[in-house]
Design brief:
The chain has about 240 residues and is an all-alpha fold. It has three domains: about 100 residues, RNA polymerase sigma factor, region 2, helix turn helix motif (Rna Polymerase Sigma Factor, Chain: A); about 80 residues, no CATH class; about 70 residues, Orthogonal Bundle (Arc Repressor Mutant, subunit A), CATH 1.10.10. It has twelve helices and no strands. It is elongated, with a radius of gyration of 20 Å.
């Protein structure tokens, strides 16, 4: 392992000195897994209408740009540097798309109206109940939520939102310490209310870095079911926040 790391460090040093296109391409190919990793994580947050190939093309451009701009002397690991640029390129691609078409916008309006009506009655909205009252299927409800979160990613940009379309830490700096503490307590409360299966999903996806496909194998469930569970959790957290 140390020998491989030493060889890679030498490759970066030589590229920094020569800017050789051949070395650039070798470094690009060596880090292709970063594309698969980030696209895999982002796909679960976008509607099914988004083509995986479009995100991969954007991610590849981001990776290439990262290779060309990376400075080993900074001491920042390349993966950390590259993932930020890859994700930024994907978000730029999402920004160009009209993820909330007319039909989706109409469904979203009905969903939000139902949520408000349930909250006014003191009822905590749940996905299946919201879908039923909005006159759509549960799968349509999940697709609308994915489209909504993906559109937020496109509007806010990678520095202002996390991968679920919820405000990132940097976007919360204007909140008072008391407001931040209150929101953190609410997030923790929601997480504590998750079932054991949902808590395992959160741990594997957000702490261990597994994709939903990998999680489906670990948990013995279909990838579609894992994606559904994830979308429901994100929607639940958004409603509470």
């Amino acid at each position: 392992m140390k020998k491989e790391e030493s060889a890679l460090d030498g490759l970066w040093a030589e590229y920094a000195r020569t800017r050789s296109s051949e070395l650039r391409d070798r470094l690009f190919l060596h880090n292709l897994e970063l594309i698969h990793q980030e696209v895999g994580r982002m796909l679960v947050h976008v509607p099914s209408s988004v083509e995986k190939g479009d995100l991969e093309s954007a991610a590849a451009a981001g990776l290439l740009g990262a290779v060309e701009r990376y400075e080993p002397s900074t001491g920042v690991p390349f993966a950390a540097f590259a993932l930020k640029r890859i994700r930024g390129a994907i978000v730029d691609e999402l920004r160009k798309m009209d993820l909330l078409g007319r039909d989706t916008r109409q469904r979203l309006v009905r969903i939000r109206r139902v949520e408000q009506e349930l909250k006014a009655k003191g009822v905590e909205p749940e996905g299946e109940e919201i879908a039923r009252l909005a006159g759509i299927s549960h799968e349509e409800y999940l697709n609308v939520e994915r489209a909504y979160h993906a559109s937020r990613l496109g509007r806010m940009g990678p520095e202002e939102s996390d991968e679920d379309g919820l405000p990132a830490a940097a976007a919360l700096e204007d909140e008072t310490p008391a407001e931040q503490a209150e929101k953190a307590d609410l997030v923790n409360k929601v997480l504590e209310e998750l079932s054991r299966r949902e808590q395992l999903l959160v741990t594997l996806h957000y702490y261990e870095g597994l994709t939903l496909r990998e999680i489906s194998r670990v948990m013995g469930l279909s990838e579609g079911r894992i994606s559904q569970m994830h979308a429901e959790m994100v929607a639940r957290l958004r409603r509470r926040l």
